[in-house]
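Journal club prep — side note

Before the paper discussion, L.F. wants everyone to see what a predicted structure for a comparable chain looks like in token form. Sequence:
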Amino acid sequence: MSQADTPEAPKPRGTSRRTVVAAGLGAVAVATGVGAYLALSPSRGPEPAYADSSLSELLEKGPLPENTLGSETAPVTIIEYSSMTCPHCANFHKEVLPGLKEKYIDTGKVRYIIREFPLDNLAAAAFMLARCSGPEKYFPVIEAFYAKQQVWAFGKEGTPVDRLFDMAKQTGFTRANFDKCLSDQKLLDGIVAIRERGSKSFGVNSTPTFFVNGKLLKGGRNLKAFEDLMEPYLKG
């Protein structure tokens, strides 16, 4: 098994913009009307041997507001490109991020930024719901979705949209604002733009992909992997 999840081959663009975030959502087309023009796979050229990026370029303003934890003046900035249906991403959020937060983010040493890089349409829909929850609830919704990923993303009962709505209800959504959120074409366009920028500008082609002050880290399966990269910036 690879260290990080990679996208499938690009899907054809023949579907109407107004049908759905469709590949895994099926009936959401009728329920929500979310656009399905997504080609949720970056080009699959050879992976560069060296893929660090300039931190200043990474921090340039994107199409949607950033969702961040920690101090803006922290000596270390960690950027995660994540997909809500990626099991390795869920593992990071359940097993690694809590320790990173307690030891480094909450103590002012690290600023953490998460960026949406949906590997499929169901992940795009989940990110839309987190965004629709508002800045204060974004991270609690993200963590709730990752905690129960196996249920709503890979469960066997009901349709994907039914499972997604059942999960959304637990974070405060009604059916009305669930449908309204997933019909927000502008929001969907913004999330797609974040993903495309990550792919085209920074070579992101799998999740989770991290940049630690611009240094590339794929997978990030344990706290030590981050500490090894952060050490030069935290001395003294």
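L.F.'s comment for the group: The chain is about 45% helix and 10% strand. Keep this in mind when we get to the figures.
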